[in-house]
Design brief:
By secondary structure, this protein is an alpha/beta fold. The chain folds into three domains: about 200 residues, 3-Layer(bba) Sandwich (FAD/NAD(P)-binding domain), CATH 3.50.50.60; about 110 residues, FAD/NAD(P)-binding domain, CATH 3.50.50.60; about 110 residues, FAD/NAD-linked reductase, C-terminal dimerisation domain (Enolase-like, domain 1), CATH 3.30.390.30. Helix content is about 30%, strand content about 25%. It contains 13 helices and 23 strands. The strands form five sheets. Strands 1, 2, 3, 4, 5, 6 and 17 form a seven-stranded mixed beta sheet that branches. A six-stranded antiparallel beta sheet has the order 18-19-22-21-20-23, with helices on both faces. The radius of gyration is 24 Å and the shape is globular. The N and C termini lie far apart (about 60 Å).
Amino acid sequence: MSNDFDVFVIGGGSGGVRFARMAAGHGAKVGVAEERFWGGTCVNIGCVPKKLLVMAAEYGAAAADSRGFGWDVAPGRHDWPRLIAAKNTEIERLNGAYRRLMATCTSYDARATFLDAHTLDVGGQRITAERIVIATGGRPVRPAFPGAEHCIVSDDAFYLPELPQRIVVLGGGYIAVEFAGIFAGLGAKVDVVIRQQLPLRGFDEDMREGLAEAMETQGITLHRGKTVASVEAIGTTKRVHLADGTMIDADLVFSALGRQAYTQGLGLDAAGVETNGFGAVTVNAESQTSAENIYAIGDVTDRLNLTPVAIAEGHSLADRLYGPGPRKWDLDRVATAVFSSPPIGTVGLTEAEAAKNGPADIYVAKFTPMRHTLSGRTRKTIMKLVVDQASQKVVGAHMLGEDAPEILQGLSIAINAGATKADFDRTVGIHPTAAEEFVTMRTRTRVAT
């Protein structure tokens, strides 16, 4: 018996949509089901709206800084509902664009669950496919401590009707530090509770220390090495009880304690699809699950949870299954950014990671950006190169400071191409820029072993 589709995609986010479009372009008959937002987390309740909120916070800082350059700018009041309305308009536009991208596929606004390895229940309709791709992404972890029902998660933050004046952020990862910067930049008093001594576990230590310093300079209170015992509602106030007895009163408690693969209720057992201990779909190097006709891409596999990686995986899989063969992507040295205040850009190995492979030459520059010599803002930029001592290849580049994500995108090309420190040294910089510091760092700061 013939199937309804050559391939069916569960999930209309960035990875699923890219796979579906490419597979349909190669001639496959493709179906796609999305139960919530076309465009997925990134477009609707993730990267895109978050970056818009980051920009909003930056305008307030820029207005204040402009006084150092002669502008007579009076302190203003931010209109949060107006920002959210403008954000919603843009997200609706993008959501519609993603829907239009599905013109070459059959799309369903419905939840899809497995009945067996080739059969799905799609909004009550029985549908069969030769192959199935799981691209359901992830969801925020909702905490389990007493009073957790009084907390919001990142999904909720984009639809707050008003900006609370006192906010406690729980966590020290990407989402926590980004929203802490957003809320503080828009005028809220922000406390951040971090289990470790520094935010952004897994990042280069100089970047972690620099960001912690910058956050505190911005007026954010870091509660380091602390955990939450419970949250209590006292009228409209939320009282956060820390394990050491500390109490923090707030108008809002924002939990950013991680994300997990969204596999609950998909019926994976019925299809013979295995997951790991955290609920993420287990796949091989070709994105194939334990069921030979079923594949998984993006955050649902909990490998490298970045939107461009999900897109690359979807594109590569479509080319391999229906096209001329897989496109080559180098996922060993993927550049990434944290849109904190100030932002971080990073690619390649941290100092600690490089030292595991042998001695590494470390170059670090820390300085006040030109803008702030006049603005008077206390803010430092930190740049760092990690160089394998034996080969002299630059194996890592890290930056904390304004425009760091834009600068590191270019450096990632050089590092992926195998550039050496000598290649950096003989490159003439663009003056006056912060970026030129990456090609003028001549004096080694230390050797990591």
